């Protein structure tokens, strides 16, 4: 068993790092989860349905968008298509993270059920100088998942007791969190051009076309800008 | 604590679509071996997606949100993540109060 000890020790260390890294995102997600549950109940969902949706879908942005367009009976195909448009970014995120994750194919198929903006962004940042291990990912995923299911269900049960979350700025926590995550990718010229292009196009598309088209178009504009800004010179190996 | 049949169907459809997007990346990643500009474009995916998701809130909601986003961006280069969130949230509450 001696040979196994270094692995267990490093797994524990990675799990602790995962817990430490995800803590701010998990705390920031609590008011957002409470808000989601409270809004969902006003649209006619039961607390059980809110819990089920959070447990099976586990995607805040898509869940908020779905709730905004929810009617009774539920427009199943429209909801599925809206969910696809908002979550299609996962394809790029998964493709980017997959080679950096120290997991088997089967492990990734299970692990990526828990892929979220937050855990993905943190894993990408960690991958800049360390491999992303199963222990690191599992710790983040477990905390965020439990946190989201519990906070959204609690929001649904408490419902109208909460009042308006905008009063204490809870609606802005998600934005501030993402700004903090973007900053961790540095401020090289290429990154700054990427951020400017993505922000401008996403804001314009959101204003003149509407959600959820801004996510895909803004992201593609940022990626194209990075391609152009990197220039021919960077094609040297 | 009831679950309506149509609601259940909608939730299952959302779950299926979401899981498909989450694992689709696994099947394209292995075929990529990138260098140069293509690598720069691929490396730009994380910040590009994150910014696109929050851009409407930061830029289209109004002055309090836009200024709070700028303050959070300045804080982000100097403070840890949770402090950045705290500064951003405090700024937006304050600015909404005075604007």
Automatic annotation (TrEMBL), chain A:
Keywords: Cell membrane, Membrane, Transmembrane, Transmembrane helix, Transport
Record's bilayer topology term: Multi-pass membrane protein
Location within or outside the cell: Cell membrane
Listed transmembrane segments: 22-41, 73-92, 135-162, 168-185, 215-231
Annotated GO CC locations: plasma membrane
BP-aspect Gene Ontology terms: L-valine transmembrane transport
InterPro entries: Brnchd-chn_aa_trnsp_permease
Keyword flag Transport: yes
Sequence similarity: Belongs to the AzlC family.
Name of the molecule in the record: Branched-chain amino acid ABC transporter permease
Automatic annotation (TrEMBL), chain B:
Entry-linked InterPro entries: Brnchd-chn_aa_trnsp_AzlD
Name of this chain's protein: AzlD family protein
UniProt keyword Membrane, yes or no: yes
Keyword Transmembrane: yes
Pfam family, one: AzlD
Residue stretches spanning the membrane: 6-28, 40-60, 66-95
Keyword tags: Membrane, Transmembrane, Transmembrane helix
């Amino acid at each position: 068993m001696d040979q196994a000890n270094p692995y267990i020790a490093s797994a524990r260390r990675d799990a602790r790092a995962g817990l430490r890294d995800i803590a701010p995102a998990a705390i920031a997600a609590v008011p957002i989860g409470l808000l989601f549950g409270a809004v969902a109940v006003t649209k006619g969902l039961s607390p059980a349905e809110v819990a089920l949706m959070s447990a099976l879908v586990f995607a805040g942005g898509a869940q908020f968008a779905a709730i905004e367009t929810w009617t009774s009976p539920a427009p199943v195909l429209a909801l599925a298509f809206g969910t696809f448009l908002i979550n299609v970014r996962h394809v790029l995120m998964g493709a980017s993270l997959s080679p950096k994750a120290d997991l088997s194919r089967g492990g990734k198929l299970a692990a990526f059920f828990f892929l979220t903006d937050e855990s993905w962004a943190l894993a990408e940042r960690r991958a800049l100088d360390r491999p992303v291990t199963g222990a690191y990912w599992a710790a983040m995923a477990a905390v965020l998942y439990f946190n989201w299911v519990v906070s959204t269900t609690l929001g649904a049960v408490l419902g109208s007791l909460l009042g308006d979350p905008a009063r204490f700025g809870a609606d802005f926590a998600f934005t501030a969190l993402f700004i903090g995550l973007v900053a961790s990718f540095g401020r090289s010229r290429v990154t700054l051009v990427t951020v400017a292009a993505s922000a401008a196009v996403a804001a314009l598309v959101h204003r003149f076309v509407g959600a959820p088209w801004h996510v895909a178009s803004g992201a593609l504009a940022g990626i194209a800008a990075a391609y152009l800004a990197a220039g021919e010179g960077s094609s040297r190996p | 604590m009831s679950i309506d049949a149509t609601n259940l169907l909608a939730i299952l459809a959302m779950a299926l679509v979401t899981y498909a997007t989450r694992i689709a990346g696994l099947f394209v990643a292995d075929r990529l071996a990138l260098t140069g500009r293509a690598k720069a474009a691929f490396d730009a995916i994380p910040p590009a997606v994150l910014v696109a998701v929050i851009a409407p809130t930061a830029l289209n909601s109004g002055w309090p949100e836009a200024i709070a986003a700028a303050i959070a961006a300045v804080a982000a280069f100097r403070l840890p993540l949770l402090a950045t969130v705290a500064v951003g949230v405090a700024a937006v509450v304050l600015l909404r109060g005075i604007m």
